[in-house]
């Protein structure tokens, strides 16, 4: 074991002291009032030791002994000692304290408590601390009363909260004349009073009763202006005054404020200097502040090595947050990763009853491939009971995600609210979100509370809350609708690297929501989102290359980005790839299996369009024709409100495409009506009204929906509308309008429309007669097996209309028409078949 240099110094001082001159030495030290001088402090300790081991009266050194522990001077002396010297110093201090206790000096119990509470490892002893305080109170010591009263008031040092008894002890301490009792009382006012005027009055009253400037609570007044009034200039002036008077807490506050970029008058080196000095004067959490700064800063001072150095110093004094930070560094920082060491620090902190350590262990457990959910829950619940703010938030996520059974959104909200009440930014964010959308339904939303919580989170720097508030401005939820404010919030979040916000900014530029479109800026925003590995951003870059959004079309890059996003199962990218294979985009070969696979993956994620397409593929036999699977996927899409799924389901029942023996035609109407309510109309609804399928016959309604369907571009609807005009269904006959719509349907491949168009050309109905074109069109339709066209073409050949008269050819077409079930043709050729049905 190495020799203690301090021990040698101490023994020299002890032996040098002359018993006959001790009174003079004691008075000289007390008069000098400088126990931050390390020589004076050590000499004072040696004098106390000498007197206690002599025949001198203990009363002569009580004042000197108390000075050794005043204003953290003992910590200033010991903070820079190596461990060997510290061991000697602490044991010698305990030995001297024991002497005072044997002499029934009750105040020595308070100093022993202070020694143990501020001790380095392994000397702190919470049970012994409490024992000292209670013994001191039993002996009537005012200092012990004040300290234990403060512990009870704020439930410190594992005491159960008892504000009434705590305050009673502190007031008794003041009554007995304890010089520091007012310090405890002003702190209670500062940390519990909600009225800033009353807080300020209490601090000023305290300061006005202090005789010396150094005794004033500069740090508390500075903290008041820094955090409660947010008057940085005033705070700076007061803290500077405290620093002049060597107030270590003022140094800490100024230093940490500089490093947090709240005061720009000083450079970072000044902030570091102030925190180092505060630590040397016994403000142990200044070491934690330095450790955090070196770890989290993004400036040139970032240093994991220095972070570890300062966190080790704080850890040496049992500062629990530094234990957690050291655990996190060793567990997660790749430059120094040491999971074994990290786990040791985490276990130390948990053993100390640190709630954050429990939450961190739960986080690690939940990150495992097969997490022990119950163990994580147990840790989080314990951490939450101890007041941790993260634990209720994380428990809320677990209830929301259904880790304990079915998702419990009310329980999740309750826990988020608790986290928010404790100031956790994620809890505040999610309470704001829940108030925006409702816990389980929109009726539970609360616009005013949503806006309040989101603003609270924004004040804490939340980009998530900026996005949420932007959405409120987009729709006018709790605020007046304002797309400019929404855009500004999205942009502010994007500039902080929030990927989703980059996409939103891109959409604003793409769609020209605030005025003119700016596709180049849209593409830039999508690119920035993609550079953050955001899948929506990657997809949007692909979309931009496909549709030339702010960039020249580039099929290769479009498909490359789609595939990149699809690798991580991003739904929109899967859909685009399926459609690209379907349309053979970018040189891709049509691949039915890939189309089905990509679209099915998207459908399984709940994309209603993809579910519709998969149903459509099974309906028409892309890879296999399977009406059962088609109906399953179409129903899933329909249940999600996709109108085209409703339309195809209507077709299924109206046209009985599956060939059911007992078709359920009437079911079609409700599906068509559902689609119509969303603005999607084909010919189906009109047919239902025309023929009374699932509803009462109503020719005017039929005409209305044929018109709507035709205007939407549905070919069959155009045919039906043309027929309605031709035969006066729900409207007056109008052969010109009939020909217009029938021609459009014919040009789009509708055989029935082609037949009527041919007949109108032959007769000159609704258009100029054109026998050549009429015969050509009629022949084309007849070749496709249309019985009426075959019969009419036979008539043309029989009488020589538009063609040379030819009985043989006429009989040939009659024969074909008869074979296809045309009744009149059958009579002519002596055959009869069942009449062809429209549906």
From TrEMBL:
A Pfam family that the UniProt record links to this protein: Sel1
Name of the molecule in the record: TPR repeat
Protein species of origin: Apibacter mensalis
Upper lineage: Bacteria, Pseudomonadati, Bacteroidota, Flavobacteriia, Flavobacteriales
């Amino acid at each position: 074991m190495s020799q203690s240099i301090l021990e040698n110094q101490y023994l020299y001082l002890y032996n040098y002291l002359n018993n006959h001159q001790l009174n003079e030495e004691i008075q000289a030290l007390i008069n000098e009032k400088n126990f931050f001088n390390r020589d004076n402090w050590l000499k004072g300790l040696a004098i106390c030791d000498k007197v206690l081991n002599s025949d001198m009266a203990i009363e002569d050194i009580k004042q000197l002994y108390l000075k050794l522990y005043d204003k953290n001077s003992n910590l200033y002396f010991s903070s820079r000692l190596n461990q060997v010297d510290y061991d000697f110093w602490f044991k010698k201090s305990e030995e001297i304290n024991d002497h005072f206790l044997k002499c029934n000096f009750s105040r020595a119990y308070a100093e022993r408590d202070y020694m143990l509470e501020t001790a380095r490892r392994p000397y702190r002893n919470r049970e012994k601390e409490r024992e000292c305080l209670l013994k001191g109170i039993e002996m009537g010591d005012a200092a012990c009363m004040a300290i234990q009263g403060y512990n009870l008031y704020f439930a410190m040092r594992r005491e159960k909260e008892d504000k009434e008894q705590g305050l009673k002890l502190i007031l008794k301490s003041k009554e007995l004349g304890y010089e520091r009792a007012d310090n405890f009382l002003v702190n209670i006012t500062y940390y519990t009073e909600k009225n800033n005027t009353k807080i300020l009055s209490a601090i000023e009253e305290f300061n006005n009763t202090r005789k010396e400037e150094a005794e004033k609570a500069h740090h508390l007044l500075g903290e008041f202006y820094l955090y409660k009034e947010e008057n940085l200039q005033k705070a700076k002036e007061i803290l500077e005054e405290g620093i002049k008077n060597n107030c270590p807490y003022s140094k800490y506050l100024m230093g940490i404020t500089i490093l947090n970029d709240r005061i720009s008058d000083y450079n970072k080196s000044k902030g570091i200097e102030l925190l180092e000095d505060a630590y040397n004067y016994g403000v142990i959490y200044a070491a934690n502040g330095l450790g955090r700064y070196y770890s989290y800063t993004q400036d040139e001072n970032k240093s994991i090595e220095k972070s570890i150095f300062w966190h080790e110093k704080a850890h040496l004094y049992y500062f629990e947050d530094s234990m957690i930070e050291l655990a996190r560094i060793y567990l997660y920082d790749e430059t120094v990763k040491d999971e074994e060491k990290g786990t040791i620090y985490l276990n130390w902190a948990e053993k100390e009853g640190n709630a954050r350590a429990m939450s961190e262990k739960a986080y690690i457990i939940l990150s495992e491939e097969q997490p022990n959910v119950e163990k994580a829950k147990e840790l989080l619940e314990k951490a939450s009971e101890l007041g941790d703010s993260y634990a209720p938030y994380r428990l809320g996520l677990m209830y929301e995600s259904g880790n304990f059974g079915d998702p419990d959104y009310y329980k999740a909200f309750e826990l988020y609210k608790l986290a928010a009440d404790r100031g956790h930014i994620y809890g505040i964010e999610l309470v704001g979100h829940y108030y925006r959308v409702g816990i389980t339904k929109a009726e539970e939303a609360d616009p005013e509370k949503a806006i309040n919580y989101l603003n609270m989170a924004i004040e804490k720097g939340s980009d998530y809350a900026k996005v949420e508030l932007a959405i409120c401005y987009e729709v006018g939820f709790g605020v007046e609708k304002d797309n400019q404010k929404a855009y500004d919030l999205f942009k502010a979040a994007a500039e902080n690297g929030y990927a989703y916000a980059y996409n939103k900014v891109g959409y604003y530029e793409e769609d020209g929501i605030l005025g003119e479109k700016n596709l180049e800026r849209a593409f830039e925003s999508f690119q920035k989102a993609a550079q953050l590995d955001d899948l929506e951003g990657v997809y949007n870059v692909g979309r931009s290359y496909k549709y030339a959004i702010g960039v020249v079309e580039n099929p290769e890059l479009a498909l490359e980005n789609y595939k990149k996003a699809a690798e991580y199962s991003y739904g929109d990218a899967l859909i685009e790839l399926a459609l690209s294979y379907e349309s053979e985009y970018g040189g891709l070969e049509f691949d039915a299996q890939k189309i089905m696979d990509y679209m099915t993956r998207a459908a399984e994620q709940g994309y209603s369009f993809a579910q519709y397409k998969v149903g459509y593929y099974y309906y028409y036999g892309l890879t296999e024709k399977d009406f059962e699977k088609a109906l399953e996927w179409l129903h899933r899409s329909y249940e999600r409100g996709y109108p085209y799924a409703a339309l195809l389901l209507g077709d299924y029942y109206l046209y009985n495409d599956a060939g059911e023996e007992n078709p359920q035609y009437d079911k079609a109407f409700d599906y068509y009506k559902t689609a119509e309510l969303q603005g999607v109309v084909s010919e189906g609804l009109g047919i239902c009204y025309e023929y009374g399928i699932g509803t009462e016959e109503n020719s005017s309604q039929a005409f209305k929906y044929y018109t709507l369907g035709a205007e939407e571009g549905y070919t069959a609807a155009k045919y039906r509308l043309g027929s309605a005009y031709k035969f006066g269904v729900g409207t007056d006959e109008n052969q010109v309008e009939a020909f217009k719509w029938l021609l459009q349907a014919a040009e789009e491949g509708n055989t029935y429309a082609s037949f009527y168009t041919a007949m109108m050309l032959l007769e000159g109905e609704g258009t100029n007669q054109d026998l050549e074109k009429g015969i050509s069109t009629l022949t084309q339709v007849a070749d496709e097996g249309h019985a009426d066209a075959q019969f009419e073409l036979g008539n043309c050949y029989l009488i020589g209309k538009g063609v040379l008269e030819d009985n043989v050819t006429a009989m040939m077409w009659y024969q074909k028409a008869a074979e296809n079930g045309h009744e009149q043709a059958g009579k002519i050729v002596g055959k009869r078949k069942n009449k062809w049905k429209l549906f």
